[in-house]
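FAQ: What does the model actually see?

It sees only this:
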Amino acid sequence: MARIDAFLKLGLAQGCSDVHLAVGVPPMLRMNGDLLPIKFRKLTDTELETYILEILTEKQKERLHEGHDLDFSYVGEEGGRFRVNIFRKATGYGAVFRFIPAEVPTLDDLDISPIVKKFCDYHQGMVLVTGSTGTGKSTTLAAMVNHINESRSLNIISLEDPIEFVHPSKQSQIIQREVGTHVLNFADGVRSAMREDPDVILVGELRDAETISMAMTAAETGHLVLCTLHTTSAAKTIDRVIDALPADLREQTKGFLAMSLKAVVTQVLVKTPDGRGRRAVLEILVNTRAIAKLITTDQTHQIPSQLQTGKDLGMQMMDHALLDAIHAKQIDPDDAIRHAIDKKKFQRFVTDPSLFSSIDLGNRDEGEAHE
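And it is asked to produce this:
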């Protein structure tokens, strides 16, 4: 058994989401959002390098020694699947192991808004799941793919870096391809997927202009395209896509978003009141004629007002979703205020007054917080 498996086994036993290994500190576990050290000595550079090299292939060792970061999936000898990132820093190597549950979650398991199931029923267009790193985007996408897999007879092609949840084919056929192993990059993967008779294409990350352009082409040509993007609101997501492509394609991009973007789901993870777990809270945009017009006329700053008035269509702003979850006693208000845009609305729910010294209560992004 690789020695690194002992830390992973401990992390799984504790119920952590991530195991962090770095030179100069003991191994650390991410527990419900907090990073906590385990009772172990500080790792030296030689010690950690030895641990890491034990689990790498010869090709991976070559890439690491050439100065590249590594992203791959790892299954411990005693079970447990992890998404791994290995990197170099000033004091030596570092590694992060993200636990991937063996069972693919359902949308009901995640208690996701029912409107998200409707997004899975689209036959073409683009659905974006967005949020900052570590907010559960991959988990939500996996649950959406699982819903399609169980309810429709389709050909689903998934492009990931690396493969996380492993989907057995059920009513649908699922083909999972890994960037760097099966395809060179996401853009090439989408290009290839369109020749493989797909109904649904999952793109693990829209990380560059070429990938965004290929995903847009796929969505325009009769495929349902599910993607993730590192943005923190619906309006910022649309601006990010427009700004990512060359200026001479700006009008074409806006036209695509107005016609083919179906929905944007932006999520954060907020601690539960007992502090023993975290819950996804969602901002949801459903594309309508009014929102399409705002996109084509460069008025995306007015999108939040459409989210407010579109509740009957399943839309919701992040602040409203957070407040609803607080009233339902589903999340900790002391953690919720950290994710809020208009933080003043949350003051009366906060139980720890010391938070006010570290949070700017006047901080609200123009165009995103509306009374």
